[in-house]
Amino acid sequence: MLETLLPIVLFTFSTSITPGPNNLMIMSSGLNYGVSRSLPHVLGICLGFPAMIVAIGLGLGTLFSQFPLLHEVIRWVGIAYLLYLAWVIANTREVGSADTQKPFTFLQAAAFQWVNPKGWIMAVGALAAFTSPNGEMWAEIARIALAFIAIGGPCIVVWLLFGVGLKRLLTEPRHLRRFNLTMGLLLAASVVPMVLD
Question: What does residue 112 show for φ and ψ, rounded to 5 degrees?
Answer without folding.
Answer: -60, -30
